[in-house]
Amino acid sequence: MSLRFAMVTTFFPPFNFGGDGIGIERLCHGLLRRGHHVTVIHDEDAWRNLAPGREPPPKVHPPGLEVVRLRSRFGLASNLLTQQLGRPVVHGRRIAQLLRDGRFDVINFHNISLVGGPGVLKHGDALKLYMAHEHWLVCPSHVLWRHGKELCTGRECLKCVLSYRRPPQLWRSTGYLERELRHVDAFIAMSEFSKAKHAEFGFPREMEVVNYFLPDPPRDAAGPPPAPGPSPHARPYFLFVGRLERIKGLDDVIPLFRERITGADLVIAGDGDHAAHLKQLAAGCPRVRFLGRVASEELARWYRNAVALVVPSVCFETFGIILIEAFQQGIPVVARRLGPFPEIVEKAQAGELFTTPDELVAALERLEGDAELRARYGQNGWRAYVDRWSESAVVPKYLDVVRRAAQRSGRAELAARLAAESPR
Known about the structure:
Elements: E1 4-9, H1 19-33, E2 37-43, H2 44-50, E3 65-70, H3 76-85, H4 92-101, E4 106-109, E5 127-132, E6 145-146, E7 150-151, H5 157-163, H6 176-180, E8 186-189, H7 192-200, E9 208-209, E10 237-241, H8 250-259, E11 265-269, H9 275-281, E12 288-292, H10 296-304, E13 309-311, H11 321-328, E14 333-336, H12 341-348, E15 351-354, H13 357-369, H14 371-388, H15 391-408, H16 412-419
Parallel strand pairs: 1-2, 1-4, 2-3, 4-5, 5-8, 8-9, 10-11, 11-12, 13-14, 14-15
Antiparallel strand pairs: 6-7
């Protein structure tokens, strides 16, 4: 029952920055393991424009995964034209040909902001899905972070995009996006929170929810979380993992380890344009350690030996994949009571939430001092990862969204072929 899937996205490993590219790659691999063929079409120009002078590490894709990298001699102009006109100007003809000639059963659009904008949605005759890894459908800056300094509670889009030093997208005020959405058969949000936020900001279509996921455990799913092993750090520590940006909330956390939290350290894994400011904020404090970028194999060791993962983001995330990474490694999380984090923590019963600095300090001290509580949260998180956020749990749900979309659109043969993979 092999199907042909096309994934259209701006970024894809190794030409990617954040979690969306990794999430797409995991979806591709999950489909391959179920016998399907996958073609990824992504825009190499976009990555090179945003990471000038860098070369990504080499990447070998598994058999059955075809990756088409779009690159042109126009470089930045190609992406700027797409951003401004909302259509794939430079690569449009090639994308249209790839989607027409690929004999695809399903085309899944992901982050299309620079690979084609709304204008790419009309290409191809297959069943079409759109997966909202960001809030781009309702927000020109993608993240609902208004003026680069606050949560967006109401539209001030022109003033906001100018504060980001980006040219305004005039097509957003013409109804063009809404007209192109008619080509899509199903829309997917990454969390119930993100689905609700799209509706709040006027997105006119119903959305399904399919979460991010991690690979299945390499052991019996009934087994315990992985053993910690030797700790890479001499003292107890809390772990932060992510890009070092203002919206990730570390500005609120680092001072607490200077002034109030003395029993454990803060270890920060990641890098970004806010790193210099954060290092200055932590200067002279021995309880804060910066690791920089950490390879995934090494990062697992840092996860397993941490007291807990700290997730202090101050923006509206669409999911929060680092939370389920912590659950996969058997440690609890302490997350800000914002966005999708309450949804994830409460479903897993594997951590604590905070709003104020006092609540954060209390949660950290409680976890640092209570090994039994940490173990209970760790076991709960492991079970939730296996049952809710593993490949075996999520990919069938994704395929069921495809099946139901095929039924609604009158593609009975495709729906029948997918029926065998529906969740039990």
